[in-house]
Automatic annotation (TrEMBL):
Residues 59-323 form the Xylose isomerase-like TIM barrel domain. This is 2-keto-myo-inositol dehydratase. SUPFAM superfamilies: Xylose isomerase-like. Residues 1-32 are annotated as: Disordered.
Amino acid sequence: MTSLPPQSSPQPSPGPSPKSSPRSSPPSSLSRIRIGSAPDSWGVWFPDDPLQVPWRRFLDEVSESGYEWIELGPYGYLPTDPDVLREETARRGLGVSAGTVFTGLHRGPEVWESTWAHVSEIAALARAVGAGHLVVIPAFWRDDKTGAVLEDSVLTPAQWRHLATQTERLAHEVRERYGLRVVVHPHADTHIDSEENVTRFLDATDSSLVSLCLDTGHYAYCGGDSVKLIETYGERIGYLHLKQVDPRVLAGVRAEELPFGPAVARGVMCEPPSGVPALEPVLAAAQDLGVELFAIVEQDMYPCPPDKPLPIARRTRAFLRSCGA
C-alpha cells in the first residue's frame, strides 16, 4: 500500500528488525519499506497440496532470494508449533510479518463464533513468532476454481453494515488480545474489490481500528489506481502486497468473465516489471507516507512447476533493489 499525518493508532512491533540480519543492505531511498515475500509466490495456496513445494524448500529459497521477511501463508503449510517455526525462520535469517485469514463477516453476527475460532488460532501463532499484522481477506462470492456463484456479487445495505461493524469488532479483539493490527485485503471476486467498494468500506469503518493491505495487483485487476488510493487514503494504508497484472491476459479474463483461479492459471499475475501497475511510483508514494510499511511480494502462481519460483524471486528482488527497496 504526498505526505500525510502519521498513523492514528500505535503500531505493534513488526518483529525483529531486519537491520539485525547479516544480509541487510545499506539505507536506501525507500528506507521505510520492508521488503518480503510469501508462500503465494511459490505457488502455495493450501495447507497441504501435492502440487506445492514442501515448506522447508520454500523457506530455503525465499532466503536464498535475498528476502528477510515472510508471511505465514495458509495456516498449516508452515509449522504451527511456534518454537519450531521460530527456529526454522531464525536460522535462515527470516522474520514473520503477518498471518492471513479468510472471513465472511458480511454475513452478520451469526458467523462470529466460527470466525473467531479460526482467527484466534492464526493470530496466536502470528504473535508468537513476532508478527505485527493480520491480513484479513473477505470471502469470495464465487468459487475461485469452478466459477460457481456462491452468493450475490453485490452486498445489500444490511450486509455492508455487518461487514463494517463485524470487521471493527474483529480488529478490536485482535488488537486487544494479540497486539496485532488488522489490515483488510481488497481481493478479486470478493465484495471489497473495486475503487468504489474499497472507498465505501473505508468510509464505513473506524480508521483507528481498520487499515488496508493494499495489494497492487488485485487492485489493478479490479480497475483501481494504487497511487491514487495511497495519496487519498494514506492514513489507512497499513501494509502492501506487491503484485503486477498482465494487461493482455486481464483483457481476456474480463471478456470471458473468468473466476480468479483460472485467471491465475492463465498467467494474469506476472513477474515485475512486465505488468501493471508500475511499482516505482507505488513505492515512492508509500515512502512519502512517513511510516514504516511492509511490502510483501505476492505473485499468484498456483499451480506452478516447483523449479519456477526461485529464479523469478531472485529477479524480482533484484528489480526491487534497483527501485531503492
